[in-house]
Write a structure and sequence with these properties.
Layout: H1 10-26, E1 35-36, E2 46-47, H2 53-67
Antiparallel strand pairs: 1-2
Length: about 70
């Protein structure tokens, strides 16, 4: 995981998107707009996109169970 002092490369952002997509898919969650953000590349942002309320609740459930 990158810290505030570490800046992942563009390849790192792409790998992070791929890894997150795979994990979400395994949990039965699809974020159709998940992608590397086009903001200034130095920010290394990932856009999660808009989701329906039921998908957000499913995501929250998975995160809560993972934190338990």
């Amino acid at each position: 995981m990158a810290t505030a002092q570490q800046e992942p490369s563009t390849t790192g952002v792409t790998a992070a998107v791929d890894t997150l997509r795979e994990a979400l898919t395994a949990a039965g969650i699809v974020l159709p707009s998940l992608r590397a953000d086009t903001a200034p590349p130095s920010l290394n942002l990932i856009a999660l996109g808009r989701v329906r309320a039921d998908v957000a609740l499913r995501l929250a459930d998975v995160v809560q169970r993972g934190c338990a």
